[in-house]
């Protein structure tokens, strides 16, 4: 039987790191060609999976088959959507008959096959996840937050031969949030800038792209409150930093539009984390500030501002 792994979750950065590591440990780099196959899960058939997984490795101890987005095909409809429609077609959550025998299919593959399913966020009631769990090693990659994110930042900064002050780590975590792809790029930039010196909070404010968002949030707050005394100096700082007047207007409009979307979702009873997922907001700082702004302002006020 093939060795089966399921990697899934919102943290696709850590997921990809884990995949690259298991690939590195299983097959030497010079043997990758001819021994690694990637399949598109959305259109995969049982025959196609067996055809790829049933092949013996070529001059290598293992053959790796990566299947992307397969389990997402069987994801049950969203529970909130089910509540809204108050009905679900019979058998909607069931597996197609052709896939019910998948565990048996895996037993037909040689032990040299390393089969890895790669998926984004899945719910625990995913029927394919349920039938594969007994025969697979399952890892869920959850977003990094709080102390766990701070430790990750410190570890990555240390790998680059740099150090960040505790205040710098805290600010970086709040500005970028759990998007580790963006975070890794910002750490690269800060480490290169530091040249062996400790990175301080002010360095993060100056160099990290998301720090501009913090200024925009403050200006939007002041502008929507009608606080000219606060808003005008903030606008001037943005202009001095190189923002164009048209760019500032666009940023203001974009933020008000976002607040309108959040206000509508809040009215529908969406939870904070669901709002972030629905609107694609990966920065914890951005989501927290936007939720605070939306709660303070009425829909009519936001519509008038827009």
Helix/strand/pairing category: alpha/beta
Which bin fits the share of residues in helices? 40-55%
Arithmetic mean of pLDDT: 86
Strand content: 5-15%
Describe this structure as you would to a colleague:
The chain is α/β, with parallel strands linked by helices and 306 residues long. The chain contains 15 helices and 7 strands. The chain has helices at residues 12-26, 46-53, 79-85, 102-107, 127-132, 146-159, 166-176, 180-194, 201-207, 211-224, 228-240, 245-267, 272-279, 284-296, 299-305, and strands at 3-8, 36-40, 63-68, 113-119, 137-140, 163-164, 198-199. The strands form 2 sheets. A 5-stranded parallel sheet has the order 2-3-4-1-5, sandwiched between helices. A two-stranded parallel ribbon has the order 6-7.
What is the gist of this entry?
The chain contains 15 helices and seven strands. It is an alpha/beta fold.
Q: How does the SSE layout of this entry go?
A:
Elements: E1 3-8, H1 12-26, E2 36-40, H2 46-53, E3 63-68, H3 79-85, H4 102-107, E4 113-119, H5 127-132, E5 137-140, H6 146-159, E6 163-164, H7 166-176, H8 180-194, E7 198-199, H9 201-207, H10 211-224, H11 228-240, H12 245-267, H13 272-279, H14 284-296, H15 299-305
Parallel strand pairs: 1-4, 1-5, 2-3, 3-4, 6-7
């Amino acid at each position: 039987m093939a060795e089966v792994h399921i990697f899934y979750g919102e943290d696709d950065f850590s997921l990809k790191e884990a995949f690259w590591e298991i690939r590195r440990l299983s097959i030497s780099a010079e043997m990758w060609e001819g021994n690694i196959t990637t399949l598109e899960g959305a259109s995969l058939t049982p025959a196609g999976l067996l055809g790829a997984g049933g092949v013996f490795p070529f001059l290598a101890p293992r053959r790796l088959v990566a299947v992307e987005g397969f389990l997402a095909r069987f994801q049950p409809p969203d529970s909130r959507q089910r509540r809204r429609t108050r009905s679900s077609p019979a058998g909607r959550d069931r597996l197609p008959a052709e896939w019910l025998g998948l565990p048996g299919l895996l037993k037909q593959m040689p032990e040299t096959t390393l089969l890895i399913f790669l998926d984004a966020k899945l719910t625990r009631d995913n029927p394919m996840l349920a039938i594969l769990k007994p025969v697979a090693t399952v890892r869920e990659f959850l977003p990094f937050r709080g102390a766990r994110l701070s430790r990750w930042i410190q570890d990555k900064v240390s790998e680059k031969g740099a150090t960040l002050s505790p205040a710098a780590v805290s600010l970086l975590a709040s500005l970028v949030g759990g998007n580790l792809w963006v975070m890794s790029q910002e750490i690269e930039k800060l480490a290169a800038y530091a040249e062996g010196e400790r990175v301080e909070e002010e360095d993060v404010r100056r160099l990290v792209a998301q720090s501009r968002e913090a200024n925009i949030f403050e200006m939007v707050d002041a502008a929507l409150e009608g606080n000219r005394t606060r808003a005008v100096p903030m606008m001037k700082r943005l202009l001095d930093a190189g923002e164009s007047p048209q760019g500032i207007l666009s940023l203001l409009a974009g933020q008000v539009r976002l607040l309108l979307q959040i206000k509508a979702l809040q009215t529908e009873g969406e939870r904070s984390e669901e709002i972030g997922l629905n609107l694609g907001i990966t920065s914890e700082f951005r989501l927290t500030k936007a939720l605070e702004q939306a709660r303070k302002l009425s829909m009519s006020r936001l519509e008038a501002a827009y």
